[in-house]
Structures are given as C-alpha cells and as structure tokens.
UniProtKB/TrEMBL annotation:
<dbReference type="Pfam" id="PF13175">
    <property type="entry name" value="AAA_15"/>
</dbReference>
<dbReference type="InterPro" id="IPR041685">
    <property type="entry name" value="AAA_GajA/Old/RecF-like"/>
</dbReference>
<feature type="domain" description="Endonuclease GajA/Old nuclease/RecF-like AAA">
    <location>
        <begin position="1"/>
        <end position="49"/>
    </location>
</feature>
<dbReference type="InterPro" id="IPR051396">
    <property type="entry name" value="Bact_Antivir_Def_Nuclease"/>
</dbReference>
<protein>
    <submittedName>
        <fullName>AAA family ATPase</fullName>
    </submittedName>
</protein>
<dbReference type="InterPro" id="IPR027417">
    <property type="entry name" value="P-loop_NTPase"/>
</dbReference>
<feature type="domain" description="Endonuclease GajA/Old nuclease/RecF-like AAA">
    <location>
        <begin position="280"/>
        <end position="363"/>
    </location>
</feature>
Amino acid sequence: MRIRRLEIENFRGITSGEVVFQEHTLLVGGNNIGKSTVCEALELVLGPERLYRRPVIDEHDFSHGRYLDSDGQPQEICIRAVLTDLSDEQRRRFMQHLRRWDDKSLEFIDTEPDSLQSADNDHVIWALPVVFIGRYDKEEDDFVGDTFFDHPLPELDELDDEDRASLGSGRARFSSKHKRVCGFIFLRALRTGSRALSLQRGSLLDTILRLGGEGAAEMWRNALGALQDLDPAIGEIEQLKVIRDNIRARLGQFVNLAPGEDSAAFFASDLTREHLREVVRLFVATQPSSHSVPFAKQGTGSVNMLVFALLTIIADLKGDQSVIFVMEEPEIALPPHTQRRVTKYVVQQMGQSIVTSHSPYVIEQFAPDNVVILSRDGETLSGAPIDTTSVKPKTYRTQRRQFSEAILSRAVFVLEGQTEMVAVHAVSSALEQFRNDYSHIDLAGVSLFNAGNDRAVPGFAPMFKALGKRVYGMRDKLNAPDAADAIENIKLFDGFWESPETGIEEILVKEVPTYVLRNFLDEVVQRDDYPTSHPYVAEKVTDHDLPALAIKVLKARKGDAFGFGYTDIFVGQCQTEADLPDFIRDALLAINEQLQDEPELILDDAVTPGASTAEPGE
C-alpha cells in the first residue's frame, strides 16, 4: 500500500492544497513552504495512535485560527488521502470501500459516464479513499476529529438529522485497527529525542511489541505482578521502612487501616499498564564507556541511530506487508555518511518512503522522478513530481550531487567548467566586499552548476525550469553556431551571457588593469607549482608582454588541480569594483538585481504562531 494523493483543506497555513506522491517521494521546497504541514496531515489521516492525543486538534490547527465562520458555525479541517497498490489482504479487508482509480489521470473513474468501458484499462486500479475531519464542538466546548472511509458516501436523505450533523455525516469509521493494516510510521524530528524509544502507545518500541505477535497482555500482567512481589520490596529499604512505620502509626490515629504491615507500603510504580508505559526506559551502553544509561542521555546522533535500528526491526517484522514510512529531515543530527546510509536503507526496504530534507546527501538517493516540488500560491499548496522528460537519466546519475544542491537552491547559474565556477565565485566575493547592496551568490541562494563544456550549457535550461527555478547561463564564444534545439533552450534562461572571447583566461586578463596582472604574476611565481615553461622575471617582462604571459600561466594551471588557486589569486588582486572583469561582474550584478526584486517566499508552515507540535512530555 502507498499514498498516491493527499488533499488538504483549512489545515494550518494551507487553505487548500494537493500533493501527488510517487512510490518513494522526496518533498522539497523552501523553508516554511509546508513540508511539515504535509507530514502532520498524513499522520492525522493515517497514524494509528494519532487520534489518542487530546485534544486531537486545537485552535491553531485551523487556517488563520478560524474555527468558526462569520455566522458562528464550525469550520471543518478536511484531509483526504487516496491509497493504492493494495495487497491481497488489504483488498479483502477493505473491498466494500474501494473505488476504481485512474493512476494516469489521478482521478476516480466512477464519476465518468463511460466508466465501465475504462474500468479494465492497464492504468486503472483499485484505490482506498479515506478522510480525516476535524471541527469545534459547540456543545462540548472542545475540538473533535476522526477518520472515515470516504466511500461509499451515505445518502443524506436516508439519514436522520443527528447522523447528518455528525462528524463524518454517516460515513463508516476508519479505525486505528484499520490503520495498522496500512503500516504507517512517522518519524518526526521532534519525536526522536523523547518518545520514540519509550513504551508509550504508538512509539516505535510499542509498535515492535505489537507486531511481535501475541503475549503483550500477559507481559504487562506479569510485569505488574513482579513489581508488586519484588523481593526485597522497595519498602524494605531501611530509610523507607522508618517513614512507612511513622505514616502507618500516624494514619492509624485518623483512618481505620487494614491490619498488618501491608496497610501502608512503597512500590516501584502505580502498578498500572499506562504508568509502566511512561516509566520503562531502554538503557544503552555505547563506546568508549561501558556504563548503561537511559537512551535519552546518549548523544543526539546516537539516539537517532537507535531509532533507525528500531525502524529496521519494524520493516523486518512487517515482512511482506509494505510499510508507509514518513521521515522528517534526517540530517538534523546525523553526519553525512550516516544520512546517506539511512536514506538508502529506507528507499530500499520500505514499501513507500516519504522524506523531507535540505541535505544533498539525502536528496541524491532519490531518482529525479521521485522528487516532488512543493510550491505555494498564497495559501494554496501544490506538489507534483518534476517533469523528467528534460532530465536524461545518465546525466542525472553523473551529476547527482550537483543536481541535489540545485534542487535546494533558489536559482541555478550554469557554467561551462571548473575554472569558470571559481572565477564567478571569486568575483562574487569581491563584489560583496566592494558593495553594501550586493549579496554574495551563495547567500542569495544561487547554485553554481558545472555543465562540463560550452556546448552543454543550453541543455540544462529546460531541466532547471522544470524544477521551478530561475536559471542563468554563461559560456565562452563558440567557434560554430548552435544547433536549433540549443537556440530554443537559450530562450528559457532568465539571463544568458556569451563571452566575446573563446576562453575564460582571455576574459580575465583582457578586462583587468595592468597592475592586477603584474601583482598576480609576482605572487604565483613564488609557488612550487608555477609552470616553469613560462618563466617570469619582473624586471624583464614589459607591461606589453604581461597579458600574453598571464594567459599562458592561467591555461597551464587550468582545471581542478590548480584552477582554484590560480584563478582565485588572480581575482584577488583587484582592489576596486572597477578592476573586476566586466563580463563576469555585470552578469552577477544583473542576477543580484533580479533576485532582490523577487525576495524568497516565506509562508506559514506546520504551525500558526502560538501552536506547538510537541507531544506531551516533550
């Protein structure tokens, strides 16, 4: 089973929204775009223990905090999910609530007049629609919420007034028992440090206990009996015995106690299942210490890895039953290599994984067609997989890390090679130093992308446009005209600059003052890696000969091995904005002006001001 579509109405910062999910889905978008809201909505509609929390929802879960309309009538939160890829067991269990679903058009076909003719098409499958509804209950002065099967809908004229006014308007309830069949697990970042390794209902340990088979009821009964019969009893501790005897003697003056020493006693807990769930803790000893301590006393990274270990146990216990696994920002406390390992396991072992992240180490584990871009138009959210028709799989595989960084960026600047990357970065650093109104290209959220050669630059424009990015391009002058498709692609750039020179070295050297060239050569000639085939003796090289020599030196030390050092040193000799190479400087200033005119969109995310996503005790 997996989630295919999610519709959200009137929930937190989203008045209306729709997100389409893939088999595995990476949700990406700017800060506060709505990623956490989507995850919370999924838990409300599918989390088997979520509705046990009280209150289920509160004032701040309603868009703008408005839970009553202008006439004083309750407003409803409505979250609908469409579940597909059902197992045989799930189809048998939910058969009366299934509908035929067109997985290509992403619509139920039974609304169309010729639905019977298309019911057996290859892309038409069985799907389970479910819905969460929440609202304010005036009579109880409280907030209520529950989940229901969203098919079949009852005939309203066949319901009495009470049923029509009920929360689900006569729908059949989608209970926690039903949800457990779906196998939904949500690893929220806030939950990791306090609740995941406890035995509270819905925790990971509780999930493992429940999936492990029969015997949980006997376990609790035996544990409570063992605590009650502890030998020696807690109350036999000498200091506690003194207190117990004093209490029993004093209480006996006012209360008719039972006879014997057991009329007042100390025990290790309240001797109830719920209290044991609260107080039982997993102890762990990690190197270099061999001393066991409660899991919460471990380092944050260790706690996260403990949580991940439990997730692998759950996946194994599920066996053939697929797990719908939602994970928020695993990079918060995990080092890069662990982020990669965790994400790779989740994608390979879980039936469906839905992950939010700002880490390229996480993002690179997802294929391009599994990336869902979230966007906002006011208070309307939309999320759909990127258009992969413009992304060649081989190109994505070889440029995976660059693509991952570009996905997270606000805009992408496509350049033809490593030396150009260094030159642009160096000029941007200089502009930041020379101008108060300039934002460094990194701080502006622009990702530099190495296309590999000048002919390849135009081909990346449609790719990044499909990601909803502003995209800019720069390259050297070509020796021959572009092909027709490249000409069309160039039109897609928000800014495109082609050099009047055939090499970046000529641009750098010909557009700076003479003193910059001499200072550059004076510095690099002292380096151990200076190219001895191009000797430089300051007294013997005239100003007229400096440009040709500087070009030779830059070309001799071009590429990843030397490019950063030599190109960066060259730009570093510029002492004013006017000294910088005009071609690169003017392009960066144009990009800066465009991005300043369109600031990044900041919107309400998971909570309205004053609301909390923490669970009790967190």
